[in-house]
Amino acid sequence: MNSADDALRALVARGFRMANAPGYTVNGVEIPFTLLYTFAWEAPFIDVVHVRAEDDVTAIRANADGEKYSLFDPDNIGWKSRDGGDLVEVVADLLGLPAPGERGAPTRQVRAPSRLSAPETGRSPLPLPSALSMVS
């Protein structure tokens, strides 16, 4: 896949269905619609690609059996591309995921508890042997 056209053709070849989604206004310019590509796996999973521009794409794999109504609720998302990604990269990442039920396939997104944090810039955690000696 080398171009946006290749990426869109790959989605269609994989069986994704395209629909127009609501547009938006950015910097005073009205975008009349965006594109939404969806692929329904055997229940309960669905893949969704939202194309706002060639360089502003988001994709998710959602689990539709969650207790939350919205597929886009974080509790229902098993995998998500970074927001505003490049179309070719996002589609390649999504199409590269194992199918639901296959080994390594995402099912539910695991979020780190808010009490965890990365070290401040310039600080590094203790090397593992030093950290282990503190426990004994």
Please provide the count of β strands: 5
Task: Provide the gyration radius in Å.
Answer: 19 Å
Secondary structure category? alpha+beta
Order of helices and strands: HEEEEEHH
Task: Give a short summary of the structure.
This protein is an alpha+beta fold. It has helices spanning 4-14, 87-95, 128-135, and strands at residues 17-26, 29-40, 45-53, 56-63, 77-80.
What are the defining features of this structure?
136 residues; alpha+beta; 3 helices; globular; disordered C terminus
Q: Could you explain the architecture of this structure?
A:
This protein is an alpha+beta fold and 136 residues long. Helix content is 21%, strand content 32%. The protein contains three helices and five strands, in the order H-E-E-E-E-E-H-H. Strands 1-2-3-4-5 form a five-stranded antiparallel beta sheet. A hairpin with a 4-residue loop joins strand 2 and strand 3. The C terminus is likely disordered.
Secondary structure layout:
Blueprint (H helix, E strand, L loop, with lengths): L3 H11 L2 E10 L2 E12 L4 E9 L2 E8 L13 E4 L6 H9 L32 H8 L1
Antiparallel strand pairs: 1-2, 2-3, 3-4, 4-5
